[in-house]
Amino acid sequence: TLADEKNAEDEIEMQDKLLTFAQCLRDNGLEVHDPDFSEGSRLAMKPIVKYIKGSESKVEEITDLCLEQVYGTPNKK
Questions:
Q1: Three-class DSSP category at 42
Q2: What radius of gyration, in Å, describes the C-alpha atoms of the chain?
Q3: Are 32 and 20 within 8 A, CB to CB?
Q4: Per-residue pLDDT tens for 30-53?
Q5: Phi, psi of 55 (to 5 degrees)
Q6: What whole-number distance in Å separates Cα of residue 55 and Cα of residue 36?
């Protein structure tokens, strides 16, 4: 059905954006792995952010930059 196709497209787009986000973090000097989609796209982002190594301010700055580049919105606190 059309709804199923839309959900599949949303899932693919979400995965693409998460992969782009992870690559952006690496491009800016953070050591992160690609997301693991075996548990679903929504759960895939948490491990990326959870295991980032680096100073908190540097990690926050790079994360905000990549959120803005990939998703168009900075991280709101």
A1: helix
A2: 13
A3: no
A4: 988 888 888 887 788 777 777 777
A5: -65, 145
A6: 24
